[in-house]
Amino acid sequence: MQCPEVNDFPAPGSLFNVENFQGALQSNSSKVDDFHYNHLLTVIIPDSQKSVGNYFDSVLENEVFYKVNDLVLEDLADPSFISSFVRNGKLTLLSINTRIDCDNCIGVTPNGKLYLSINKETYQCLGLEGVTSHFTKTLGNKFFVCIDLADEKLLSNKKKLRRLKSRLKILKPFTVLLSWEPPKEDVCPSSIAKYFSEVGYNVKQCVPALHSHTANVRIPGIQFPAVDKLDVSTFVEWLGMVSLSCDLEQDEQQYLSSYFGPDTDCEDVKPVRCFRLRGFFTSTSIIQHIENIMSQFKDEPVNWIAVYVQGFSDSPVAWGNQEHHYFANGDNGYVLIFQKDRGIIYKHQCSRKMYK
């Protein structure tokens, strides 16, 4: 027999935020720049004769990231590594094949912060200052540690640096994905791969996986600037249905429940192209891709173009330095809908609910 109180537990809430912007996205980059770990980039283009397939082919050639197997965290605190890749350029690094709710996870953000999301046993052995996880303060079985590798005092204080290296050595090796943006154009981003290879690591060069399809649907419109959050949410839901190749036909007789999309004055069925890239993208590269797409369609008579960006489920931080979790709904991401030089940013942040 099912306990009747089970149905009394409310579902964890999600935070949805709608913002309008005007002009180039680069000048509004602060809205998305602090979303460091991007896994999925989906671009939806309705009813356009312009070909963008060549652009996405070039993305596969130029959007390179690296996989390093069995990385010992002690090497991230090496003075030569900090000087070359943490304090110069922007390093983005994330552990993979680890689960944020029960495993140890690590990440380095472009501002030089090393984040550790670790269990109680590891924290007690680590000997570094941290805080109890926001989500398990009562249980106390998960801890969050932040280390500023870009701190100028860290390199000058050899005793502190030696202690940090000895503490990080306690952690088991991680398999990580990483990308490095050099401070100058004449410096090759692959320098970091060469560095790890020369110190004995197995480094693999990776590129995003591309999938595309075309859907023939009735295309709804959206108001710029957005004034109704519910209308934007309904439109974003429709975009999700299109990107997943769902059946959008409204057949009330076939199913007890059917999906009904946003209202549209368009009776004609028109093509909508969807391009989906899976990989490891920095916030800088995401902004560049969006800017390039906006530039290509600046003079095109399209009603709108949508870009969906989804983060990694098991990253130690999500937005900025905000701790991430995956107990119930750990998906974080945003949808950008634009028309020429104006647009809407629809953010989805997972629940900040504290578990007892």
TrEMBL record:
GO cellular component terms attached to this protein's record: multimeric ribonuclease P complex; ribonuclease MRP complex
Pfam families (alphabetical): Ribonuc_P_40
GO molecular function: ribonuclease MRP activity; ribonuclease P activity
Gene Ontology annotations of biological process type: endonucleolytic cleavage in ITS1 to separate SSU-rRNA from 5.8S rRNA and LSU-rRNA from tricistronic rRNA transcript (SSU-rRNA, 5.8S rRNA, LSU-rRNA); tRNA 5'-leader removal
Protein name: Uncharacterized protein
Organism annotation: Phyllotreta striolata (Striped flea beetle)
